[in-house]
Design brief:
Elements: E1 2-5, H1 10-20, E2 26-29, H2 45-60, E3 64-73, H3 97-107, E4 115-125, E5 134-144, E6 160-162, E7 167-168, H4 174-180, H5 182-197
Parallel strand pairs: 1-2, 1-3
Antiparallel strand pairs: 3-4, 4-5, 5-6, 6-7
Helix pairs in contact: 1-5, 4-5
Family: Belongs to the HAM1 NTPase family.
Keywords: Hydrolase, Magnesium, Metal-binding, Nucleotide metabolism, Nucleotide-binding
Binding site for substrate: 7-12, 69, 154-157, 177, 182-183
Length: 198
């Protein structure tokens, strides 16, 4: 079965292709099929992921899976949440992973509570109007490091310490990261749902 991955984020695409490889589905990035991205006007991960999946399914006529993920910092009341990718822009920085990390460290400089969690919500639809989308959520508790550590991964990985490992996601080999990460957890659950219902 061919499934569209409703994302143009290269980091996400690389991770999801590895995580879904055992299923034997032919995963195709939406950028190889059409230009543009869905609007993401909602305040929850699930609503935005659903909008992206429906958009990709409508554009291609194929089943689609979308991921909406983000960082939820306890000291910030769960923010930046769905605005994670644009976090740095509210502080005058251009949008980029490096600027996001810099802005986060600046905002947390004097905070003792460094607890946070990463969320990945995957939504799968068989068609644009699928009345029963598959929804898989993965969460992982992390501590925000005081400075970047490691060179792997993307996004906030260099400052996300996995407490039980004592290392950031950027310090971990890909296989270990996928075992512990929010996207690894949501992908395993989505794989189970795909096998059961599709």
């Amino acid at each position: 079965m061919k499934i569209v991955l409703a994302s143009n984020n290269q980091g996400k695409l690389a991770e999801l292709k590895v995580l879904f490889a055992p299923l034997g589905f032919d995963l195709v990035p939406q950028g190889s099929l059409f230009q543009g991205e869905a609007e993401e006007p909602y305040n929850t991960f699930v609503e935005n992921a659903l909008a992206k999946a429906r958009f990709a399914a409508e554009k291609t006529g194929l089943p689609a899976i979308a991921d909406d993920a983000g960082l939820c910092v306890q000291a910030f009341g769960g923010l930046p949440g769905v605005q994670t990718a644009y976090y740095s822009t509210q502080f005058g920085y251009p949008k980029s992973d490096a600027h996001n990390v810099q802005a986060l460290l600046e905002q947390m400089e004097h905070l003792d509570n460094r607890n946070a969690y990463m969320v990945s919500t995957l939504v799968g639809v068989r068609a644009p109007q699928d009345p029963e989308p598959l929804i898989a959520v993965g969460k992982v508790h992390v501590h925000i490091a005081k400075q970047p550590q490691g060179s792997h991964g993307f996004g906030f990985d260099p400052v996300l310490i996995v407490p039980e490992l004592g290392q950031t996601f950027a310090q971990l080999p890909e296989e270990t990261k996928n075992q512990y990460s929010h996207r690894g957890r949501s992908s395993r659950e989505m794989a189970r749902l795909l096998q059961q219902y599709w």
